[in-house]
Every structure is written in structure tokens, then in C-alpha cells.
Amino acid sequence: MSAGPLPIVRTVAELRAVVSSWRRMGQTVALIPTMGYLHDGHLALVRRGRELADRTVATVFVNPTQFGPTEDLARYPRDEAGDAAKLAGAGCDVLFAPSSAEMYPPGFATSIAVAGVSQGLCGASRPLMFGGVALVVTKLLLQALPDIAVFGEKDYQQLQVIRRFVRDLDIPVRIESGRTEREPDGLALSSRNSYLTAAERAVAPSLNRELVQAAGLLADGSREAGPVLDLVRANLLAVGFASVDYVELRSADTLASLERVSGPARLLAAAWLGKTRLIDNCPVASES
Ligand code: PAF
């Protein structure tokens, strides 16, 4: 698709003016929040937004409140011009790219905590992450007031956290998800894949391979999960992962721990390859 330059707005006032002009024409709006350095996974979410609504707004904001002090905020990859070109190509209508001062002006003092689904998994090793995600996504939803917001299943726990607080806070938006987009060898697309060395990149697809194999073993509910998950951890370390944060079998909806599959379930994992933390997840057959 050929496309002209994408309009970029940087203030909440400008964003609201654009969305209001669409509303006056009776058009519906989908929001696609991102932290930029966009790949085909993000663009698939934009395309999903376009299927579901008349207009799409993508946001690019590397949200400082969801990073811990030793995490990769400073080196998180950024390429606004490239992102704008890709969004224009995907048919997005406008990019909202606010500054940190626009999102968190001096005196900002509010936090949001989501219990239950935020705990464990990524919440254990990244204790600030989901509070920060809940805060920024709540702000983006209230700033844009879209009909629909689209998030990727790659960040599966994040998706469940967002569904939870949107329900709890009565935010009038429909949350939609997009499937994880993958490289041909199975590696989930992620902006953080750009950190991988060539040797690490060769090992990285093992994360998805191990999860898919384990899902096959666990699908009919005849096996206890523990030994299968232990095997996944051991195999990841054997192929070159430096450490494994978690490999777990959880209920697909509540993220409650499961000892064996007895209904909709997900396998979720996070592991370190050198200095890069990769996450992935896969449905266990009885989910669908
Ligand atoms: O998934 C992401 O890119 C971010 O966590 C999000 C949802 C845009 C909030 O900063």
C-alpha cells in the first residue's frame, strides 16, 4: 500500500481534537499502544484495529514507569521515523508520540496496582512492570477514549492484567488481542530481538520449540506438569540459555497455576540469553 506521511500528534489536546473530529462523523476508533521500534507483530495489531474500527491511532511511548532501575529503559531501541513510515504503510491514521513530560508532568503522584494476575510470572522478576503498564494504558485509554484497544498475545500476562483493570475500573473500551507473529523458525517477534548476537539468535527459537513440545505432552491432561516443565528448563539451559526465570502451566483466563491440563491453559516462559530476556507463551490444545 502506498501512503503519505503519517500525522504525528504529541499532546493529549491534539489527540483529543483528532479523535473528536472522527466522532463527529460517527466513526469508530481503535487504539494500538506500543513502545515503538515496530515489527510485523505490531503492524498486525494495526491491521486488526483497521478491521474492527473506522480509524486507528497507534501510540509510541517508551514508558519509564514500567521499567525497574536495572532494566533496559536507556537502551530500549527507538526509531520514530521508521515507525511512522511503517504505520503509514499499514494504513494507520495517526501516531500519538507524547513526551515523558506530557505523560508524567511534574507533581504526578498516582499509581495503579492490579492484584492477582500481576503476581508471579513476569511480575515476580519485574515487580514494577504491571503497575507501570496499568498506569500508562489507563492514561492512554482515557486520553484517546477509543472503542477498541488491541494488544498482542505475545505479552500474555500483560493482556490479562489489562483485561482485569479495564473491567475493574469500568473503562468503556473493548480489549481485543492479536496472535503472536513469529519468524519462520518460530521465534516470537519482539523489539528486544534486536539485542541478540548472531549466536544467541540461532539459539533463541528453542524457547518456542520447547513450549510447543511441552504443550503437546500436556494437552490431554494425562501428565503432571511438574516433570515436563523441569525438562523444558533443563533443555533451555542445555542449548545455551543463561538462566530461566520461569516456565509455567497456567489457566488461560485467570493465570492460576495448574498441575495438569483440565481446561483452557497456557504455557508461559521467560528466559535469559546473554543480556536479553525473552518471553513466550503458547496455548495448550484444549484452550481452543
Ligand atoms: O506491550 C507494550 O509495548 C507496552 O507494555 C505497552 C502496552 C505499550 C505499555 O507501555
Question: Would you kindly provide a written description of the structure presented here, covering whatever features stand out?
Answer:
- With 288 residues, this protein is an alpha/beta fold.
- It has two domains: 8-178, HUPs (Rossmann fold); 191-284, 2-Layer Sandwich (Pantoate--beta-alanine Ligase, Chain: A,domain 2).
- It has helices at residues 12-24, 40-52, 80-89, 100-103, 122-125, 129-144, 156-168, 198-203, 206-218, 225-239; strands at residues 8-9, 29-34, 55-60, 94-96, 148-152, 174-178, 243-251, 265-273, 276-283.
- The strands form two sheets. Strands 1-4-3-2-5-6 form a six-stranded parallel beta sheet, sandwiched between helices.
- Strand 3 (55-60), helix 3 and strand 4 form a beta-alpha-beta unit.
- The longest helix has 16 residues, at 129-144.
- It is globular, with a radius of gyration of 19 Å.
- The mean pLDDT is 96.
- The structure holds pantoate.
- Pantoate (PAF) is lined by residues 33-35, 63, 66, 133, 136-137, 155, 158.
- The site of pantoate has 10 residues, from strand 2 and helix 6.
